[in-house]
Design goal:
Ammonium transporter fold; two-stranded antiparallel sheet; 15 helices; 4 strands
Length: 435
């Protein structure tokens, strides 16, 4: 009897997965799709998994051992901080109707998510699910920026910077692209965050890196990753989590989600190979660090295109991402001598911009994409305008945010002595390793 009951309980969730829709119990006219809801719930978990533990491990392995805890702490604390900000104000600023200001920003009607109830709908999924899914995107964006200033920013300054930056930069760009604002109305195609997440994070990272200045000893002193095994583990988690990032952005369990998942995987694979072979040609050996960084570049670059392009477009976009982002990394560090610690701008900024622009080409049905409402040339022009606008908005307001935080905290950067000792001990009183 108990055995049969356990089988019945195990099969119960499948009933809801395969039910096409159910009516809301409180008499709302809208109907909820159980299949779509199940998929977006799953995608939310996958995207959160990208930040903790995925990105946290990826970044923590790349820094020196004396700063491993500081990076883990930053990713973990940002997950908590952005969650609170999202509930209090950010969700409404990103997805509310801003009235006369709607081209740029939402509203304050969603303070503390008060209008969002268990019966609220966003399309055919609960609004609670939509809000949670979008929250995971908001969480990972400032966490990505951490890689630009790793090993040299004070923890209190990082917290204050992230709070102000989310209000001034992330929420407006998110609204303008996905919340009914000017970039979306202009026709910008950004399926899962080429501009909102990757260009935003990349530009903010390099502006912050330049504002803070290089780490002591850069570029003459070698600063290799202290634990590549940790980095590879984190990269693997990012690859898996990215399926929720891109395929979940269809907001439905449908053909668009299926194609987005397929091209996401192709982009990751070809980005890895493109970076690996280019590095192999230039340096004589393929590195583990190179192949996993190429994977992230491929994923970041396919992100804006993922719901619009087909397999052929993904093969080309991913391959270009691996090569171009590799060259950008070398140029930023070796030619410009900018200490973007963990290569956020050349990987995410360049990759996000490249993918957003190429979406205008490979979304065309001639390349096996989902089709364009404009000519390829017209759409590419729109994509370029969207990228440039995001770069300018983010660059200017990131600098403004840094100036504000600098004046309020008496300096953004840790002391030279603290940097030498390591932020784990000086900032958190702990050490990642007993030895």
């Amino acid at each position: 009897m108990f055995k049969k009951l356990s089988y019945l309980m195990a099969l119960t969730p499948l009933i809801f997965v395969f039910m096409p829709e159910i009516s809301m119990a409180d008499g709302h006219e809208g109907k909820i799709s159980a299949a779509n809801t199940s998929w977006i719930l799953t995608s939310s978990v996958l995207v959160l998994f990208m930040t903790i533990p995925g990105l946290a491990f990826f970044y923590a392995g790349l820094v020196r051992s004396k700063n491993v805890l500081s990076v883990l702490m930053q990713c973990f604390s940002l997950t908590c901080l952005v969650t609170v900000l999202w509930v209090v104000v950010l969700y409404g600023l990103a997805f509310g109707d801003g009235g006369s200001m709607n081209a740029f920003i939402g509203n304050l009607n969603y303070l503390f998510l008060s209008p969002v109830t268990a019966s609220s709908l966003s399309g055919d999924i609960p609004e609670t699910v939509f809000a949670m899914f979008q929250l995971t995107f908001a969480i990972i964006t400032p966490a990505l920026i951490v890689g630009g200033f790793a090993e040299r920013m004070k923890f209190p300054s990082m917290i204050l910077f992230s709070m102000i930056w989310m209000v001034l930069v992330y929420a407006p760009i998110c609204h303008m692209v996905w919340g009914g604002g000017m970039l979306g109305d202009m026709g910008l195609m950004d399926f899962a965050g080429g501009t909102v997440v990757h260009v935003n994070a990349g530009v903010a990272a390099i502006v912050t890196a330049m504002y803070l200045g290089n780490r002591n000893g850069f570029p003459t002193t070698p600063m290799p990753p202290h634990n590549l095994a940790m980095t590879v583990a984190g990269a693997s988690m990012l690859w898996v989590g990215w399926f929720g990032f891109n395929a979940g952005s269809a907001l439905a369990a449908d053909q668009s989600a299926g194609m987005a998942m397929l091209v996401t995987h192709i982009g990751a694979a070809t980005g890895s190979l493109g970076w690996m072979f280019r590095e192999w040609m230039k340096k004589g050996k393929p590195s583990v660090l190179g192949i996993v960084t190429g994977m992230v570049a491929g994923l970041g670059t396919i992100t804006p295109a993922s719901g619009f392009v087909g397999p052929v477009g993904a093969l080309i976009i991913g391959s270009l991402a691996g090569v171009i982002c590799y060259e950008a990394t070398q140029y930023i560090k070796q030619v410009l001598s900018i200490d973007d610690s963990l290569d956020v701008f050349p990987v995410h900024g360049v990759g996000g911009a490249l993918g957003t622009i190429l979406t205008g080409v490979f979304a065309s049905s001639a390349w096996g994409g989902m089709g364009l409402d404009n000519s390829i040339i017209d759409q590419v022009i729109i994509q370029i305008k969207g990228v440039l606008f995001t770069i300018i908005w983010c660059g200017v307001l990131t600098f403004v945010t840094l100036k504000i935080v600098d004046s309020l905290t008496g300096g953004l950067r840790v002391s030279e002595e603290d940097e030498q000792t390591g932020i784990d001990l000086t900032g958190h009183g702990e050490s990642g390793y007993n030895n």
